[in-house]
Input
Amino acid sequence: MSTPPPLAARVYFAAETGEEQRRALTDGLAGLGVAPYSATLGAFRGEALTWLVLVVLPLSGFLQNVGQLLAQDACTALKRVLGGALRRSPAEPPGPPVPPQPLLLEDERSGARVVIEADLPAAAYEQLFTLDLAARAGRTLSYDRTRNRWIQG
Output
């Protein structure tokens, strides 16, 4: 029996994304069974970037595969890969602190986007596996820490 081909993902990095962050994300995605194809952008669809990384993939299939592949450790692995890509380098240039930019996951089927911040709690990652992205087509979801759930923003 042949193994199915890996999921493909388009990974768009903002120009200021560090090499360590790029490598952490692409290597992490590869370790989760995703074939990442990456590019660096100065703008996206004619708009200035408000995110550090955008990952476009069949998100529901990705989450299902990660869940099956890693079972109990799926949330921990997902948090390590996605959150790790957002960790700031210790070699940040001096000056005023820059607000952290998120990573966006975009489902290529529904167009739903999920905003991933560097310090999301484990509960946020656990809930990702149960989100109905088809019901949120074209919407952007962010994690509301006061309600402890994903909301449309």
Q: What stands out?
A: The chain is about 30% helix and 30% strand. Helices lie at 19-31, 59-70, 74-86, 122-128.
